[in-house]
What does this fold into?
Amino acid sequence: MDRFRTMESFVRVVRAGSFTIAANQLGMSRALVSRHVSDLEQRLGVRLLNRSTRSLNLTEEGQSYLEFCERLFRDVESKERLIVKTRTEAVGTLKMTAPKSFGVVHLSEAVVAFAGEQPKLRISLILEDVSLRPGEFTEKGLDLALRITSARNASFVEEPIAPLDWIACASPDYLARAGRPTSPADLASHACLVHVNVLPSDHIWRFEGPKGTQSIKVAGAFMSNSALALRKAALAGLGIALVPRYAVAEDLSSGLLTTVLPRYRTTARPLVAVYPRTPAVPQKVRIFVDFLKEWLAARNVNRAAPRP
It folds into this structure.
């Protein structure tokens, strides 16, 4: 016999003062409700109700058990309302992770703006350049991850947020020493700064140009999973970097870095929101993803970092 069903029958009988009325309220037969109460008394080993043909009276044990049942039902209803609320309102804590480069340049500004619009929501933003593993959302308590590469996992939902332009660039000093490449094929003889953990074939750079798509395998003495680290290496004259435009936009404007192969372009790569695949997306995740799409669409996501 379902324990909660017997408890509910007991509470209804007491509040209604009648087995018949309680049965009608529960949509059960009077005999079944009576059996529920009898089974409950048998399981507890005490009498809960003194029955007569005209009245029902709680025993001392029955009064104590009634208070316990009502308190338990209130707690259950409160918890259920809270769970439903998380699907309709942005409440609780939203914990997310994002690449350091994009987080420093753009995301932190967006998250601050979002926090100002959602005072009931606590925000936790972790900036780290790591690959998502199965189970990592649970281990780290994450609700959302922003990435510039696919997690390639069917248990995740990947939702495009904004396209990110990528650009090949180098310092004038490096180009003066090593020469300026005129076609993608020339990159094979250059020191290239590789952004690892972005694509399965990190060392293959693809360009669109006058002769269509060209792919070239590159190599160099410096690699990193951080666009900001690759920017510093390029500024130091270590080689040619292929990085998101937002990471070097200011350097390109100032002349500290210069575009390599300006007649060629690389395919934009999407910034994606990754979250666990569940029957219903938590409202706090849905609201933030929609906010971030609109926030970035209203700005040039490939611009330089905003100045304070």
Notes: DSSP finds ten helices and 14 strands in the chain. The chain has three domains: 3-83, 92-162+270-297, 166-259.
